[in-house]
Design a protein that fits this description.
The protein is mainly β and about 400 residues long. It contains 4 helices and 26 strands.
């Protein structure tokens, strides 16, 4: 169900003008457990569409404009106001389908404009200067930013992005400078490859994959022991941060930064070319939007209570992005350091720092949302509700649903 998040989120939104709309995309299936995503199956029954069940600010109304979509993740409009939507083509639980770009007709039917390979999820779309720009998640082949013409011709502006793990290539949006901004999620929940990544499926395919820092970092030497589900003999592996499964870290060990990185916001020209760093130390920067004043905001899915280094009680965050800043992953949550019991699950050890020295002091979030709220899509309203004929917000609950569980 689409929600305009209330409480802390709503209070924080009062500082934005026009209104910042943050959409929480919940599951089309059952509520994911607090340990996060990784579960999924194709729904075989129709989902009831009830716009009245959507929580909206006063003066807004939700109207269903399309149904019978499969894993839709994002919507955009061309220069003539025609609506387009992307279907992800991938769901946690190892469900692989063809990602699609669809044109939504006035009668609610859909026409396929373009299809991708089974390398989803397609997580976002924007229209700019006559072309569509789509983020291809990269679950099987690595992430891509695609440019798609109105007749369906697909060109990869960049490919082989390091998004083979838990989180994917997200966005994109066009900045005031005319460049394409997008997010790269982290390979893991909190820096350590472990059994949860095996359960997600990717560790079986890519046993050497792991997180990549933006710059050289020095490790505390803290390691974590685990064994994979098929290893019933009790064989234990020791794994360090930013390293492949089964490779331990040593105290003071340096892990070299490289391009591109996981857990970052990047940008590039609409024609392709070199990547540029915008910010890093994010876990899963999913939603990106520029305010009318040109400020970039990013919604970031917080840690889960899972894996070898579980983090308990971490919310999702909205960041007003400062160029070049480090946002704290894997040793902070919402600007708060892992230096006590604050993020320790009942009966489990609290997470401890992995880095000897932090790359910076993380900013404070613009807003903090609920634990496992999966706060994903962001947009800025360009008018106030009273200025909108009929006071309707034409966003369909069917359009905005997709199955991530908890990212």
């Amino acid at each position: 169900m689409i929600k305009y998040l209330q409480s802390k989120a709503a209070r924080s939104q009062k500082r934005f003008f026009p209104l910042l709309l943050l959409l929480a995309l919940s599951s089309c299936y059952t509520l994911a457990p607090s340990s996060g995503g990784g579960q999924g199956e194709i729904r075989t029954t129709s989902r009831p569409v009830n716009p009245a069940a959507i929580n909206l600010p006063e003066g807004y109304e939700a109207v269903a404009v399309a149904t019978q979509l499969t894993y839709p993740t994002s919507i955009t409009f061309d220069a003539q106001g025609q609506a387009y939507v992307v279907e992800a083509g991938y769901s946690y639980g190892e469900v692989f389908l063809e990602p699609k770009l669809l044109r939504l007709e006035p009668d609610g039917s859909q026409i396929t404009v373009a299809k991708g390979n089974k390398n989803g999820p397609w997580t976002g779309i924007t229209f700019h200067n006559g072309n569509f720009y789509v983020a291809e998640g990269g679950e099987l082949e690595g992430g891509k930013i695609l440019r798609i013409t109105p007749n369906g011709t697909i060109t990869a502006l960049v490919e082989n992005l390091p998004t083979l793990g838990d989180h994917h290539t997200n966005g994109p949006v066009i900045g005031p400078d005319g460049k394409v901004y997008f997010g790269l999620g982290t390979a893991t929940n909190s820096g350590i490859v472990g059994p949860d990544n095996y359960n997600y499926g990717w560790l079986k395919r890519y046993p050497d994959f792991h997180d990549i820092p933006c710059q050289d970092i020095s490790l505390t030497g803290r390691n974590y022991t685990s064994h994979l589900p098929p290893q019933r003999t009790g064989e234990v592996q020791t794994t360090g941060p930013y390293l492949p499964y089964g490779v331990p870290a040593t105290e003071g060990q340096t892990v070299q930064g490289s391009l591109p990185w996981t857990g970052a916001v990047l940008r590039l020209s609409p024609e392709g070319g070199p990547l540029e760093l915008v910010a890093w130390g994010l876990r899963n920067p999913f939603g990106l939007a520029f305010s009318p004043a040109g400020q970039l905001y990013v919604s970031d899915n917080g840690y889960d209570d899972r894996g070898s280094r579980p983090v308990w009680g971490a919310g999702d965050y909205l960041w007003a992005v400062q160029p070049g800043a480090w946002y704290g992953w894997p040793d902070y949550s919402g600007g708060t350091a892992f230096n006590g019991e604050r993020f320790g699950a009942p009966g489990k050890a609290a997470p401890e720092p992995l880095l000897i020295a932090s790359p910076g002091i993380p900013p404070r979030p613009a807003a903090t949302f609920g634990v496992h709220s999966s706060s994903n899509g962001i947009d800025f309203s360009q008018t106030t509700p009273s200025a909108m004929p009929g006071k309707r917000l034409s966003r369909s609950s069917a359009i905005w649903h997709h199955r991530w569980g908890k990212c």
